[in-house]
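Predict the assembly for these two chains.
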Amino acid sequence: MATETHHHETAVRSAFHPDVAGYEQVNRDANRLLTKPGKGYLALLGMSIGLVGLMVIAELHNIIYGLGMSGLTNPVGWGVYITTFVFWVGIGHAGTLISAILYLFRAPWRQSIYRFAEAMTVFAVLTAALFPIIHIGRPWFFYWLLPLPSQRHLWPNFRSPLLWDVFAVTTYLTVSSVFFFIGLIPDIAAARDSATHPMRKKVYTVLALGWKGTDREWRHFTRAYLFLAALATPLVLSVHSVVSWDFAVSIVPGWHTTIFAPYFVAGAILSGVAMVVTLMVPVQRIFGLGAYFTPVHYDRLAKLLLLTSLIVGYAYGMEYFMAWYSGELFERDVFWDRVTGDYWWAGWSMITFNAIIPQLLWIRKIRLNLNAFFLISIFVNIGMWWERFVIIVPSLAHSYEPWKFMNYHMTWVEASILMGSFGWFFMWFLLFLRYLPGLSIAEIKEVLPPPMRHAHDAAAHTAQVDASGTQVDWSGYTEVERR
Amino acid sequence: MSKLRTGVLGVFAHLDSATDAIRRLRGDGYEVTVYAPTPRHELEEALETPESPVRIFTLTGAFTGTAAGTALATWASIDWPLIVGGKEIIALPAFSVIMFELTILLGALSTVGGLFLLARLPHIGPAEAPMYHPSFTAGHFGVFAHAPRDRYDAVQAILSEAGSEEVLVDHR
């Protein structure tokens, strides 16, 4: 069918994707991600799998020789494992923010980056879920965490934040996986319809569940998707709140504060947005997706990062204010110790990387410079890991009576598992890029002006003709950004 | 709800031509199945699609979850009563987290269940309309008019007049 010629009749373009000519181009570009990978990809995948192997070896040491292989001891019973758990759960939050919260807000710049972000969420939570299981020391008993009937009528303690966390994280993993897969169905169908490799065609046919894009399917799909987004929104805010209560409900100095829930949620979104950018920039460069990840997308992500960085910076300051204003000796001591004690370097890297360096994003030139933004996102990733470390370890190592102060040192087993967690995460992400549609084909089309025979019908009231004669649909842009 | 198993498929490159065809066909009393690469409100308006009942599944699932969370935490706490610090055995503020999480979990799962049931996914058995074209997941809109064989000519005329690029007839 001669489709190309017809699109020229109505050259209305979306202001978010001025380089995308029409519906078919989205399919072509998305399918490009699914073609044969290069050597660079295989090298990255090999490296990731290698790191996972390292993690397996380290975990075998944990299992065979016991948790003594880690640096955990009294009084520091929570170390790198819990730090990394909180870190990865936090990473997931930006994905749900972009996929669900921005969906409810009808933010049109969400569409092209949402699939990456949602995939990142699923894989980050999948990574996070490893850590409580590693941390309990006898992973084969992990099912003791679940409320299963036992002969002795023993149930987990429903008044404990640790059990709330089990419920929050498993619910989060389930709901974000479901949301991810439901969103994928129409795009897998698109991949099925254009697949040439017989094996791929078969697998996509099964995964697409027979989707054809009929009116019946879309009618229920759009509603179901809306409700899933509406359910995921309070869920994501609850998950890191519950994680923060693991700390805040206890009476350990440095943990026992009421600001922990919003502070953790803001930190989670900060780290998650940073990870989205860390993933987006290389993917855009390698696959040439500049038409989809435009300066507007980066600009808005940068503003989100800046906002959450300010909230986190405010929380840092407020913690010190509360320690001082409460007059509580142990509280003051822990906070003073954070920036002057044995872990001063961790405390300062957290403040520098999370609250100070992101302030560079106030400058428009830096926001729109991908290299600079990428670098800042890496700093934030590192800083947010240190934030969790600073909250957990120095508080435990330096609380109450001086005779029980004891520092904690990471062992090679913990370091390997930490590195392995990145390998595990990137392994899933790389496999996702290669085998499932990385661009949300159907949803990007929602923000593209539909092909019209009579141009005045669609979006014409917001469309303007620019110098080159192409019409641009400005809906969703603010006045400031148009200038 | 079963539609006729025979009919004619029109392939459209333009959304407004497709909605035009839908309006004309429905005006003449034909049932249609519409294929679209992306959900468009123009199509829903032309089809006068009623509100999807998925929301009933969401609501039922969510309330079931709240009840399940309350029941699980309460019953398990009573099954082995353990008083800590003189506090209530049934501690609703603490249980509210469990209630909330299960509300979301069962609400989401039952929404998906509702979607699968109503949209007939995964699709097994004969398709709703016997004809399909792979370009419907790329850039084309499809309008399949369910019509008896003796009305094929009339339907073809409507589809072509509306601006169909290609009209495919089910000749089985």
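Residues 1-10, 457-462 of chain A have pLDDT under 50 and may be disordered. Chain A touches chain B through 71 residues (CB under 8 Å).
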